[in-house]
């Protein structure tokens, strides 16, 4: 039990780390690229299962991962991007930035309570399945259907995925060019104050 608990904890930490990396990337796309919203091209828990296999994560870790889908899978808006916009606008406040954090925290708390209350009201008043078939139907079952599949048929690391990634880097010139350009536009803004390719580069990154 102790070993299983440690494995589940490691899997949860890796999922959280990967989700944060995706959030940071999406935040850069939103605030520097000028887009309204962006959806991640991957789901952190699914990538982890493919990379190391469900047998390594174990049943406890897989069940825990199912509950991460609500905040880490196919989201269109998240607090990190909103806070980045708020901090940019907060530059007009000068040195009085400390109250801004508490205002953001209050806004998050109020929006959380308001959204939960409204969803419960609408769902009980009109029936959730009548409001949106995905949000109240397929979307709520999808994480657990995925985990059930992995529990019934445990998987090993997806070697073909690792091999494909390696050979794509080794043999495909476009992959090397894209990765090199992404590295430049990621680090150039920190070295060149008048860097002009940052907004366009963030879309590629």
- SSE class: mainly alpha
Helicity, in percent?
A: over 70%
Give the C-alpha Rg.
21 Å
Q: How widely separated are the two ends?
A: 41 Å
Order of helix and strand elements from N to C terminus: HHHHHHHHHH
The biggest sheet, with number of strands, parallel, antiparallel or mixed sense and barrel status, is:
none
Question: Short summary of the structure?
Answer:
This protein is mostly helical. The chain is built from 10 helices and no strands.
Description of the molecule:
- This protein has 205 residues and is mostly helical.
- The protein has two domains: 2-155, no CATH class; 158-205, no CATH class.
- 79% of the residues lie in helices and 0% in strands.
- Helix 1 crosses helix 5 (79-90).
- The longest helix has 34 residues, at 98-131.
- The protein is flat and about 55 Å long.
- The two termini are 41 Å apart.
